[in-house]
Amino acid sequence: EVQLVESGGGLVQPGGSLRLSCAASGFTFSKTAMTWVRQAPGKGLEWVGTIYNDGYTRQADSMKDRFTISRVNFENTVYLQMNNLKREDTAVYYCKSSDDVWGQGAQVTVSS
User: Fold this and answer.
1) Cα torsion through 49, 85, 106, 30, rounded to 10
2) pLDDT band at residue 46 using 50, 70 and 90 as cut-offs
3) CA gap 51, 79 in Å, rounded
């Protein structure tokens, strides 16, 4: 079964950090580009960034100074490290594969 499972979301204070994980199964992860997107309350989907199978990344300008995308192919896992979080980063974060398989989403809430 093709599956993406996210973990690591939660409540964090402004200025804090979180690392999201996305564990893949059922497809050849090492050959697949992976993307993080997010959806803030009441808003549409926003692209966060994409990491290609060779590790090359492209990220949204508004977040690339604070967010880092990485992958560990032998673990079949992609990560989103988020630092200096702001209230406006509150959203559900999804990972998706280039074959359009989506994870279930991880809630990130930035609040004091």
Assistant:
1) 30
2) very high
3) 10
